[in-house]
Amino acid sequence: MSKDKTNLPYRPCVGVMLTDGKGGVFVGSRIDREAGEAWQMPQGGIDKGEDLEEAARRELFEETGIRSIEIIAESKDWLNYDLPPELLGKALKGKYRGQTQKWFLARFTGKESEIRLDLHEPEFEAWRWAPVDDLPKLIVPFKKALYEALVAEFGSRVKALAKP
Question: Which residue, 1, 44, 64, 100, could crosslink 10 as a Cys pair with Cβ 3.0–4.6 Å?
Fold first, then answer.
């Protein structure tokens, strides 16, 4: 039985575009292949009553072990993506049509030894720093427009923060 996505809400989430200060952005390779091969930036749900920046810091820590960051900017708008029909009723516990996300641009201020993908239930099996302009090519197709919007909003700032 197929679900009509118009009757499903968006799941409120936060995401973090984390730059290394050299022009790279943190991406992780997802363990679950439900949506296919994908490298994505850390993101996740907002707990009831949780402040958005607090949620972003918590999700980043849970997925990467990273605490050493400086928040640079917050996306001006909430960005949405819809799940493709084959994932409706399966992904996101079957309760949502997709996600609405508030994104934060942050600079990593720690050492790479801080990065741990196994502190909580792992979501990523590997990580790397990717050029900001490559992000839309790395994500699953149904999130590509959202990543293009993020690169348009934050990309020049990631490049400006790059130290030679």
Answer: 100
